[in-house]
Design brief:
By secondary structure, the protein is α+β, with helices and mostly antiparallel strands. The chain has helices at about 1-35, 55-65, 70-90, 135-190, 195-225, 240-255, 275-290, 330, and strands spanning about 40-45, 50-55, 95-100, 105-120, 125-130, 235, 260-265, 270-275, 300-305, 315-320. Strands 2-1-5-4-3 form a five-stranded antiparallel beta sheet. It has a three-stranded mixed beta sheet with strand order 7-9-10, with helices on one face. The chain has a two-stranded antiparallel ribbon with strand order 6-8. The protein starts with a helix and ends in a 15-residue tail after the last helix.
Amino acid sequence: LWLLLLRLHRRVFTPALADAARVYESEALSRVIIDTSPVGLVLIDPSSGEPLVENEPARQMAALVAADGDALYTLLATHARTAAGAGAGAGAALEFQWNAAGAARHALELQVSMAPASFRDRPVWVCALRDVTAQAELERTLRDARSDAERARAAAESASQAKSAFVATMSHEIRTPLNGVLGHLELLARSPMQPAQQERVERIRLSADALLGIISDVLDFSKIEAGQLDIDPVAFEPRSLIEQSALLFSAQAQRKGVKLYYALDPALDRVFVADVQRIRQVLNNLLGNAVKFTESGRIVVRAALLERPTAADPLLRLQVVDSGIGLAEDQLTQLFQPFQQADASIS
């Protein structure tokens, strides 16, 4: 009998006790994990809404909702029964956002996950609660900030459009009397005058032409901002365009003692189709800068054709080369920015 008991102890009781000890150890570890989890975990009775097991975060969240901690669990159990009756299924997991007002008038946002299970031979709801109040508040703040930014952007765009419309209107209105001034200067230049008077009238006319060009540039810039700049392609001859631009700045270059040349490719004796007014505007700006910033030496305007292997039509390349101060590499990045100057000390 003793040998039989010893054999049963070794073969049956000892392994059974070891298994029981592991079960107790696993249950204790599970309780420690549940108690130390930052997520609220609770087992809720589906019929009464009573908490069977809960950890400290769940207890604190329930206390924020009402003085009686069971109130939150009762509401969750009722919500689970309603969802199951609405077609979610008694065995289906539930995930939803719960908004509750705490006893101390705290706005509490809970992210709830519920799933049915069994605990000690009775059905329960396993409920995980996560406080997302700060996250929800941050999202609302971000939405408000985004809405404010959109309103500010709309207001800025409206102000920019109003400014562009005002500048365009003023530029257009100023050109009307200026054209009258230019017309009368043209008539005055044809009347008999002394050479000194003729020279003064010519200088006034040149200044008025320059002012008209500036106003046209401002009007074009306003059109670009408003997205209304139209390109008007017409037939033109590059030779006459370059000759007119060179003659326009020849007097200024001569006064500074700077030689002004232009070199044309013989292949340019043909008709091109493009917006000649825009090309003239760019070429005059380049020539004006070249004359302005070249104290000695020469300025050369070059025009040539660039054949493109992948295209049937060639490109017209215009170059303005001068012996002035030039541009540094870091200054080239600002070349096509509006109202930018490489060196602010140069007037």
